[in-house]
Amino acid sequence: MTDALKPDAQYQILFDSNPQPMWVYDARTFRFLAVNEAAITHYGYSRSEFMSMTIKSIRLPETVTTLDSDASRNTGVWKHRKKDGSLIDVEVTSHGIVFDGKQAQLVLALDVTEKLKARFALQEKADELASMTQQLWHASKLVTMGELAASVAHELNNPLATVSLRAEALMDQLAHDEQKQRSLLIIISEVERMANLVTNLLQFTRRNYRQISTIDVREELTRSIDFISYYLRNRKIEVVREFDDSLAPIHADRQQLRQVFLNLMTNAGDAMPEGGVLTVRVHDQSERVVIEFADTGRGISASDLKKVWEPFFTSKAEGKGIGLGLSICSRIVEEHGGTISLKSEVGKGTTVRLTLPVANVALVEKPVVKSSMTASTENMHDAGTRHAGSSWMTSHQRR
Ligand SMILES: Nc1ncnc2c1ncn2[C@@H]1O[C@H](COP(=O)(O)OP(=O)(O)OP(=O)(O)O)[C@@H](O)[C@H]1O
Ligand SMILES: [Mg+2]
User: Fold this and answer.
1) Within 6 Å (CB) of ligand 1, which residues are found?
2) pLDDT tens for residues 59-73?
């Protein structure tokens, strides 16, 4: 619909004094026919510059093709260029009129740049909030899982002890019956497995009873390796030790540390059913002891990599794994002020990397005098270079 704008002084005043930029342009040639003061101030062009321009001069080249004599198509949010070259977001309302006998468009241009910026900022905050909610949900899931695990473990402890005691008593009674004894042995070993599971579950939830002592990580690694050497040998897995000669001590709970090492080495062993090499490295670097378990196993797919830290995520067959190993490790390491990260390539292998803070030497009863400090520093540097640019997946990234 088109209206004839009467050459009325009052309309002229309304047009000129409108605080929002307004103009009239020729619907056929797109030339400006009139602009108000607000347009001149806001866009920076003088009135005569405006009059020598078309509407295309202030629109971005890529949006010019959408210009149409149909007013409804010109209404919307567009980018306009001001004289100083800056771009603004403008909400345009366009209205068909007859001006000086020509078909024209009367335009009201509302600068919404700040409004859009605020909307984007708000969107960003909303996204941030959504991701934090996700993290909180994950944390609460962990807590719930932990509580659930603790109560189940607690309830299982007593019946397990009873079964174990009864089975052992029966063993004595059936000393003459080898076949029944064999069955009983299976029952006893399965009960033992369940008891281990319960211990693991309790470990998963236990937070308080830590016994901190000063520890040489190499000794604990050696003990842990010895402890599962039978399991590893059975799977034709060769263990290579790359231990730094001089290593700072750490403060840690010995049992928990062993649990971490055993969990990680068991995982490595499970990933190499056809045999392979497990390299265990340890060195110190920037006030931290860095421990690595690198296997040549089947690796972890990109989709699983996101889930491995989740409690109860397992890719193992039923009865083989319950998916708590890495969650336990992650919790223990974090409680020790350390970090745990994992890097894997399908078909090539997986490396799990731990860092634990070096003990405050002032608190260590027997300070370890590091005679080969320089050599150690070089090793640190080597290690840093070795990992430069590699993408370690930390237990936090999952959240
Ligand atoms: N070294 C590794 N190589 C390949 N996959 C691994 C390795 N370590 C962990 N994973 C993957 O991460 C999953 C989760 O490991 P996690 O130790 O938490 O549980 P699990 O070993 O399956 O069971 P659990 O440790 O409770 O007996 C494993 O099922 C496996 O898919
Ligand atoms: Mg495991």
Assistant:
1) 263, 267-268, 271, 295, 297-300, 304, 308, 313-316, 321-327, 350
2) 887 776 666 555 555
